[in-house]
Amino acid sequence: MNANPFILFGTTHIITIIVIALISIMLPRIYRTKTEAQKSLMTKVIAFIIFCHVIISPYKDLYILANPYNWREVLPLHMCDLSEIFLICFLLGGPSILYKCAFFWGLGGATMAIITPDIAFLDLDYAFFMIGHGMIILGIIYATVVLNNRPYARDIITVSLITAFILFPIVYLINYLLGEPANYWYLMQKPAGASLMDAFPEPPFHLLITTPLAILIFYVIYIPYFVKDKLKK
């Protein structure tokens, strides 16, 4: 039986957004007052769930879906995939720069992905897509609220430089070497589903808009901290 087509802001999509928002808000609030041992356990649980998603997703894409993907497009190289990997490493004791990259990439990219997912049908692919991006949001909020981490204004520049001058050339080269249908970071083609990128020029000229827009989004994400710091002075 064929899966129902995905409808942007349809009933299933709206319910998914609400569930992700509630879990991402309520679980960190609940664990904020737990013991250190309980916090540590939940930290490992979140990292483990994200790890399982990263490992199982390519297998699902290649061997379980009725319409499997090409192996060239299932490597964990999208920005949200890297957010997951960075979050896993940070939650298990990695350096704070991993959290800061995941914070800006995740809140910017995963939120947009949840609102305008690159999905055609309400099937297993939809479930994995939403679980993965939802866990990014949950992991970031948990690391911020429960584990007392936060970004600073200077981190926007650091994350932007890492993104533009280290990871971007690497991902672009990987896309080029793999050939179609490799399209990590959507550097070669626009997403198949409806998204903000539909209003931009065709790749690679869309980078003239998406690059400054991404940095602007980083600053917008940081506004609550800017206001909070100003009020403390």
Unreliably modeled segments: none
Q: In percent terms, what proportion of residues is strand?
A: under 5%
The general outline is globular
Radius of gyration: 18 Å
Describe this structure in words.
The chain is mainly α. Helix content is 67%, strand content 0%. The chain is built from seven helices and no strands. The longest helix is centred in the N-terminal third of the chain and has 29 residues. The mean pLDDT is 92.
TL;DR of this structure?
The protein is mainly α and 233 residues long. 67% of the residues lie in helices and 0% in strands.
Index terms:
233 residues, mainly alpha, 67% helix
Present the secondary structure layout:
Elements: H1 11-31, H2 36-64, H3 79-91, H4 96-115, H5 124-145, H6 153-178, H7 207-232
